[in-house]
Amino acid sequence: KFLLAELSAPASLPQVIAATRDGLQREVYAASMLSITADTMAEQAHLNSLAIGLQLDDAALAQISAAVGPR
User: Fold this and answer.
1) pLDDT tens-digit readout, 6-49
2) CA 57 – CA 47 distance, rounded (Å)
3) What is the C-alpha R_g of the chain?
4) Cα–Cα distance for residue pair 64/51, rounded to 1 Å
């Protein structure tokens, strides 16, 4: 029931950012990268907004991208 409830009313980007615990910012960003292709402007904007909200710098984003692999 919990999963169905979450899927029917997904959290907004600000809610995801606010709910991300300290130390889990990279994992949340990586999970988001893995869940989308980022081949549209909207998806790229989503990842950019998430990175800004999670306060990930360019070095962190490069490390995450290297670990996740090409998308």
Assistant:
1) 888 889 999 999 999 999 999 999 999 999 988 999 999 999 99
2) 13
3) 13
4) 11
Rounded to an integer, what distance in angstroms lies between the CA atom of residue 17 and that of residue 19?
A: 5
Question: pTM higher than 0.70 for the full model?
Answer: yes
CA distance 18 to 66: 26
* Closest to 16 (Cα-Cα) out of 59, 63, 60, 49: 49
What residues have CB less than 8 Å from 25, skipping those under 6 apart?
Answer: 54, 55, 56, 60
Cβ-count burial of 29 within 10 angstroms (0-12 exposed, 13-18 middle, 19+ buried)?
buried
φ and ψ of 9, to 5 deg: -140, 70
